[in-house]
Amino acid sequence: MNPIFLDLGIIQIYWYSIFILLGFLIGGTLALWEARRWEIPEDFMINLFFYVIIFAFLGARIYYILFNLEYYMNDPISMIKVWEGGLAIHGGIIACTIFIIFYTKKYKVNTLRILDILAVSLIIGQAIGRWGNFFNQEAYGSATTLEFLKGLHLPQFIIDGMFINGTYYQPTFLYESIGCLLGFIVLLIFRCRKHTKVGYVTALYLIWYGVLRFFIESLRQDSLMLGNFKMAQIVSIILVISGIIIFIRLRKVSVFDNSYNGRTNE
Which long-range contacts (CB under 8 A, 24 or more apart) does 148-156 make? Predict the structure, then answer.
C-alpha cells in the first residue's frame, strides 16, 4: 500500500492529507449551508472554520504526541510530520469545543446551535478521514485470516491493504467509517424532527460516536494507552455520559422555547 498520492520530488502529497482535507471541505460546506438557513453570517462561520481547523490539528496532534512522548523526544522533527499520520480525533474535539464555547460567547451566539451544526459536519468528516488511515496502514484491528476478510465481501483492494507485515488484520478503519456514515444519516434525520431541541444533535453525536468508538477501540491494536487502559475508551465513556447529561438537562426546557427549528440563535 503506497501512502503517497502524488510524488513531485521535493514535495510529496499523501493520501492521508487528501482525505483529511476532503473531510474538512465537505463538512465545512454542509455547515455553511445549514448556517445560511438560520441566517448566521457567513463571515462568522468562515472565521470560525479558520480557527477550528487550526485548533483541530493542534489539539489532535498534541494529544497524540503526549501519549507517544518517548518516541517524539527521540525524534523531535517527527512532531511536524502530520502527513504520516498521528492525529487523535479526541484531542481535536476537546480543543475545538473549548474554542467554540469561547468564540460563541464572545459574539453572543447560541453555543449549542453552533455545536449542533458542526456535529453533523464533524461526523461525515470523520467517515471520510478514516480512509486516510487505510492508506497509512494504521488504525487497524486484531489479526485475522484471509477467509474472514473475504467473508465480509470486501473489495480486493481493502483486503490487500489489510495485509500488513505478513499478517491480515481487521479493517477497523472501515468499521468506524461506516459507523460514522450511519451516524451522519441519523443526525440529519434527527435534526429535521419538529420537536428536536437545540443541543439534542450535539448530545446524540456524543452518545453515538462515544459508543461506536468504545467498541471499535476494543479491536484496535495501536491504541493510545493510559497505564493498562485504552485512552480512547476512557474518553468515549466521558462523551457518552456528557451526551446523556445534555439530554437530561434539555428535557426540562420547553421545546417551544428551545426548538432547533426555531428562529433564534441567541
Answer: none
